[in-house]
């Protein structure tokens, strides 16, 4: 072998080695994104994975309707109440540290959920799970933002948004599949290996980051916000069972109102406030926050009661119920992607306003159930609602951030996410009270004890209760009336929010920024 051939071969081998090293480096740079997406996918799936499993939970634990509401509601409520506080904590002590702590708390509470002996323990564990989810959700955007720059940051946020959309789409279907094949407890236990993988990967590949300007956490503001949200939600939940004028309902409303007033006073006086209330002086910000509060509650909160109808009256399996709900999430994902691609320069006055209008029309389209209605009756309404969510959702965060001073953009983004989760929690409470009251009213004169029958139909004795009714049309008619009332209420709220959004939002849509994305999904939710 001559020298020229020898050196030529060495150069080719060196070039191949360099190219392989570069390929491995390019692949390795996406590991931080993988770690963040694992946690994000898991916490968002858990918002709606429970929906189709609730009848099995009710039957297995003999749980009441109120307990079923809280299994769904308490997760979203705690997530909403702690989200802004968790973000402030992460800026102060470190985002990776808070994210990993949230993962660990989420895993531990998921284990307790899966092993819960009764509904009380399950609801308590779901509350802790919501706290872990808040710690995770409050840090994901900041961790991705700190891990990438330039074009890579845009790619990372595109992948992160797609993972959010996938979580919303597969949640009900995954919940139905796991529930039917392995039992409802595994919808929580499956979180354990994913959490362990996410913790290990995060500690290995994600670097720590914090906000050097962060000084302290507004603890009084966090405590009062939690108290106000919790008390009002509890009052709304109990109103359907105890009545709107009962001592419990009025007492909790009083506590919630007092806490809200105190929160406003504290935030006005605080030097480092949790939420700068002066931002609401801007009509655009106020309109976007109204839309954020109403969006998830009007679009998704009634799915708990739809799932009961699909499985108890229509006789569908958990997987079947998940497939019926899937068109809403699927169309939301597709529309959100198209909106972000083609309508990002349209004013949020029209994208968010039209989206809320479609949510109102879609939920109203579902208020057509009769005794003879089959599961196909809700599909058109699901489709319209999904398109509305996909049209509005990608624009709310960008619009809120674009309507405030740059130094308040992070606060605005956190407030939008918190209001969306809070709206979902409040929606479950309000629509649940409407559904239960209408269901019971429809049973009056048809069964000896309407209250007991209502409790049985909405709890763990639905199958037995239905079999004991001599007239086969009584229960389907009562369920249809309850669902119609719930979806009509959701429609009225959504349409009012659409009018408020179109009237208040004036500022043109800001240019899209890869540093401030909005997940293409609901929350849940």
Automatic annotation (TrEMBL):
Keywords associated with the record: Cell membrane, Membrane, Transmembrane, Transmembrane helix, Transport
Subcellular location per the Swiss-Prot or TrEMBL entry: Cell membrane
Lineage: Bacteria, Bacillati, Actinomycetota, Actinomycetes, Streptosporangiales
Protein name as it appears in the record: EmrB/QacA subfamily drug resistance transporter
InterPro entries reported in the protein's UniProt record: EmrB-like, MFS, MFS_dom, MFS_trans_sf, Sugar_transporter_CS
Keyword Transferase: no
Domain Major facilitator superfamily (MFS) profile: 32-509
Membrane topology, record value: Multi-pass membrane protein
PANTHER family: EXPORT PROTEIN, MAJOR FACILITATOR SUPERFAMILY MULTIDRUG TRANSPORTER MFSC
PROSITE patterns given in the database record: MFS (PS50850), SUGAR_TRANSPORT_1 (PS00216)
CDD domains found in the cross-reference section: MFS_MMR_MDR_like (cd17321)
Main location class: membrane
Classification via Gene3D superfamilies: MFS general substrate transporter like domains (1.20.1250.20), Multidrug resistance protein D (1.20.1720.10)
Transmembrane portions of the chain: 30-54, 74-93, 105-125, 131-148, 155-174, 186-206, 218-237, 243-265, 285-305, 317-338, 350-369, 375-401, 422-439, 485-505
């Amino acid at each position: 072998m001559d020298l020229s051939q020898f050196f030529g071969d060495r150069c080719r081998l060196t070039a191949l080695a360099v190219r392989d090293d570069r390929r491995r480096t390019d692949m390795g740079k996406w590991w931080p994104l993988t770690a963040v997406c694992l946690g994000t996918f898991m916490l968002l799936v858990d918002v709606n994975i429970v929906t189709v499993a609730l009848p099995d939970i009710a039957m297995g634990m003999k749980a009441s309707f109120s307990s079923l509401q809280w299994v769904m509601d308490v997760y979203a409520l705690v997530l909403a109440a702690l989200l802004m506080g968790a973000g402030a904590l992460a800026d102060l002590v470190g985002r990776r540290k808070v994210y990993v702590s949230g993962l660990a708390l989420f895993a531990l509470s998921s284990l307790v959920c899966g092993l819960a002996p009764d509904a009380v323990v399950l609801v308590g564990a779901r509350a802790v799970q919501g706290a872990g989810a808040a710690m995770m959700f409050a840090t994901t955007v900041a961790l991705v933002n700190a891990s990438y720059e330039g074009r890579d940051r845009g790619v990372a946020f595109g992948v992160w948004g797609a993972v959010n959309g996938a979580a919303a789409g597969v949640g009900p279907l995954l919940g139905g599949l796991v529930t039917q094949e392995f039992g409802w407890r595994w919808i929580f236990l499956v979180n354990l290996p994913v959490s362990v993988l996410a913790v290990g990967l995060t500690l290995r590949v994600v670097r720590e980051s914090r906000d050097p300007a962060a000084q302290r956490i507004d603890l009084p503001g966090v405590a009062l916000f939690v108290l106000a949200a919790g008390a009002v939600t509890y009052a709304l939940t109990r109103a359907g069972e105890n009545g709107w004028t009962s001592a419990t309902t009025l007492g909790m409303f009083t506590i919630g109102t007092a806490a809200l007033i105190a929160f406003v006073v504290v935030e006005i006086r605080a030097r480092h406030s949790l939420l700068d209330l002066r931002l609401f002086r801007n009509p655009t910000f106020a309109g976007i926050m109204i839309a954020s509060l109403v969006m998830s509650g009007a679009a998704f909160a009634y799915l708990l009661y739809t799932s009961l109808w699909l499985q108890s009256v229509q006789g569908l399996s958990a997987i079947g119920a998940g497939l019926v709900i899937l068109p809403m999430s699927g169309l939301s994902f597709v529309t959100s992607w198209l909106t972000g691609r083609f309508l990002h320069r349209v004013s949020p006055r029209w994208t968010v306003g039209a989206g809320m209008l479609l949510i109102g029309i879609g939920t109203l389209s579902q208020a057509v159930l009769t005794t003879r209605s089959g599961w196909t009756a809700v599909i058109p309404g699901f489709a319209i609602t999904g398109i509305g969510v996909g049209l509005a959702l990608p624009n709310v965060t960008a619009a809120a951030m674009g309507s405030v001073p740059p130094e308040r953009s992070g606060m605005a983004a956190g407030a939008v996410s918190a209001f969306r989760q809070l709206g979902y929690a409040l929606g479950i409470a309000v629509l649940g009270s409407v559904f239960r009251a209408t269901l019971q009213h429809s049973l009056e004169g048809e069964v000896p004890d309407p209250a007991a029958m209502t409790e049985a139909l909405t709890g763990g004795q639905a199958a037995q209760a239905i079999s004991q009714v001599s007239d086969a049309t009584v229960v389907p008619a009562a369920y249809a009336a309850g669902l119609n009332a719930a979806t009509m209420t959701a429609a009225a709220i959504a349409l009012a929010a659409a009018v408020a959004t179109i009237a208040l939002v004036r500022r043109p849509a800001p240019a899209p920024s890869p540093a401030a994305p909005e997940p293409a999904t609901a929350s849940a939710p």
